From TrEMBL:
The keyword Iron applies. Its cofactor is [3Fe-4S] cluster. This is Ferredoxin. InterPro entries: 3Fe4S_ferredoxin, Fe-S_cluster_ET. One of its GO terms (molecular function) is 3 iron, 4 sulfur cluster binding. Keywords: 3Fe-4S, Electron transport, Iron, Iron-sulfur, Metal-binding, Transport. It comes from Nocardiopsis dassonvillei (strain ATCC 23218 / DSM 43111 / CIP 107115 / JCM 7437 / KCTC 9190 / NBRC 14626 / NCTC 10488 / NRRL B-5397 / IMRU 509). Gene3D superfamilies: 3.30.70.20. Ferredoxins are iron-sulfur proteins that transfer electrons in a wide variety of metabolic reactions. Coiled coil: none annotated.
Length: 66
């Protein structure tokens, strides 16, 4: 799995951070998503998938085959 984020699309909702804080964080100044690791460990796959699904702007991209 490989994760990427588009900070230009992020609205700062923070659902990703709540679901997978080991993978996502938010910038202090504006709440925009920051990716902590683009290749999360397998045990975090379910949370990362859910974060991608609930992102209101589609800023999180999960490539299952990478």
């Amino acid at each position: 799995m490989r994760v990427t984020v588009d900070q230009d699309w992020c609205c700062g909702a923070g659902q990703c951070v709540l679901l997978a804080p080991e993978v996502f964080d938010q910038r202090e100044e504006d709440g925009i998503v920051e990716l902590l690791t683009e290749r999360p460990p397998e045990n975090l796959y379910p949370a990362v998938r859910e974060a991608g699904q609930v992102c209101p702007t589609g800023a999180i991209h999960v490539d299952e085959e990478a």
